[in-house]
Amino acid sequence: MKAVKIRRIVVTAVIILVAYLLQCSVFPALEIAGVKPNLMLIVTASFGFMRGPREGMFVGFASGLLIDIQHGDMIGFYALIYLAAGFVNGLFEQIYFDEDIKLPLFLIAGTDLVYGLGVYFLTFLLRSDFNFLYYLNRIIIPETIYTIAITLIVYPLLLFINHKLETEEKRSASKFV
Description:
Blueprint: H1 2-26, H2 39-51, H3 53-71, H4 77-90, H5 102-124, H6 132-175
């Protein structure tokens, strides 16, 4: 039973690390009009509504901490934002169905919008940068659209990995019954 949990932790850590490396190395080359998709947010939200608030918070904290380390302004800023995103998406675990892609797309789009607004408020508005419509039209909405487009590719892969891990967990649990 412990080996299955360790396997889930290792697979989750590898997914976070791969998403981070893709976001830092590959996605800047895919930047369109200064906007790139937020792969770390896709992973955080997906783990939240697939596995619940607790795992969403852990994945969000780890993802945010990696981004904090990369940007280096304040350690914990993005970790807190991603942690909250993982928790809120985890609250939708009860109404989440694997077959329906509408809810994950809606949740990831909403999370990205709230993320963009939160980052604007906490980093720009508090420094007296009041050009909200420019930021909304040039960064928040295009990033949300781009993130949704990438979600259509990444989410089925995350769903497949989650199904494999769940079937292995169920098979392992049935051995003890």
